Amino acid sequence: MVDSVVDVLVVGAGPYGLSVAAHLKGRGVQTRIIGVPMRFWQENMPEGMFLKSEPFASSLGSPRPGGGFDDYTSGWRAGRPIPLGTFLAYGRWFADRLVPETEPDRVTAVERSGTGYTVTLSTGETVAARAVVMAVGVGGFAHVPDEFAGLPAELASHPVAHRDLGRFAGQDVAVVGAGQSALETAALLAESGAYPCVLARTTRLAWNAVPDASLSLVRGPRSGLGRGWRTWLWSERPSTVRFLPERTRRRIVRTTMPPAGAWWLRERLADVPVRLGQHVTEVAAHAGRVVIQTRDHEGQVSRVEADHAITATGYVCDLDRVGVLSPEIRRTVHTRHGYPVLDAGFQSSLPGLYFAGLTAALSFGPVMRFVHGSDFAAARIATHIARTNPSRPMPRVPAQARP
């Protein structure tokens, strides 16, 4: 027996979940969105962090004018980094204005049923939904290299495990990676009194240039993913990615915006040791510390000992890690390389089951890894649902069955 019914249930209240719910509401679709607005950003991003994206590329998807980041901040200038707290406040402001009905619960299970899907909430309520939108964010896809996977949490972790890096004050911390997450984590650690050391496979750190809003036919237009004609295409016309061969799409997702640090971060790492060209070959725990063995491109072996290792090695989509989906759904939905296969409306092979955010990257390209892609995804999903799942009378739930 179910306790309530709804046309669409959105799982997750991050940038993509809020954007999808706002667009659905704008089309008059009966919608429930489950989750605390911006919770992952609040609980799993480090204090003192700044967004790498520019103001124009940091807006959630609004179905009407007035919901963008610039509308909240009244002219945040280009090139000025956005503090995490400011972005959190903007996301909550967006939710209050456009999706005030957000429910601060958790979804514990999504199962198929005769009328669509049955969703169980942490309150114990069961909801019958004609369509479900999975906007679960990136947290569940945090990637830890195999070499570190066997270590206990007190010796190795991913950046998403740390809201307060001050806990490492006075400790040696090895930071593995060469992208923004690794470099900013190292800077924040040093500023918190820790002694970080960056280990990177690349032989040279890459740094993003100071933003330039001028037009340039040679360098190409500016977009949410940077500057360049191809970058503009993947950023502003993500529907074109679907028409490319799968191998090309995988390469685009992997290589667009490769690991690099923001220009404003460079001087903050001046006193942080950085060891380049280091490939991790072996990791072990010894006497309460982590011992990391590396080999450089000339074959020279080195060893680093630390009190803790933080593997800032990104996120890898794997639908099997979305535990709220029933085993039957995970077994049935078509996937490629861990990603669900989606149609032009972000719908999976199971009618009425949609995916937004990182899980849509193989179908719609690298912009789905960033906030900038939320408006396109939300508009497409809302349009598809409104056209293919028009509201129809659903079975009434007896009053005594409602919570």
From TrEMBL:
Every FAD/NAD(P)-binding domain range: 7-357
One protein family per Pfam: Pyr_redox_2
Transmembrane intervals: none
This protein's name: NAD(P)-binding domain-containing protein
